[in-house]
């Protein structure tokens, strides 16, 4: 996945996240909505991590396409 596609995924996830947070703030969120918010958070962490990997590889002259998404249990432990 190239940078543009990763950014596109991020934009879609953020739009969905905003919709779900809107439901949460007006009191209409369901348990499914809250579970989906957690999934989105993890997916966003993975996307941002993948972009960072790609940029780092590019920065040292390596092929950014060799970067791979890391599992949620790896990226969720990163400090932002």
Task: Give a description of the structure.
This protein has 80 residues and is mainly alpha-helical. It has one domain. Helix content is 70%, strand content 0%. The protein has helices at residues 3-25, 31-59, 72-75. Helix 1 (3-25) runs antiparallel to helix 2. It is elongated. The relative contact order is 0.14.
Set down the secondary structure blueprint:
Blueprint: H1 3-25, H2 31-59, H3 72-75
Helix pairs in contact: 1-2
Which key phrases capture this entry?
80 residues; mainly alpha; 3 helices
Structure described in brief:
With 80 residues, the protein is mostly helical. It is built from 3 helices and no strands.
- Kindly report how far apart the N and C termini lie: 23 Å
Number of helices: 3
Strand tally is 0
Low-confidence stretches: none
Computed over alpha carbons, the radius of gyration is: 15 Å
What is the 3D form?
Answer: elongated
Note the beta-strand portion: under 5%
The helix/strand order is HHH
Helix amount, in percent? over 70%
What average pLDDT do the residues reach? 95
Please indicate the count of domains: 1
Q: Summarize the main sheet.
A: none
Structural class of the helix and strand makeup?
mainly alpha
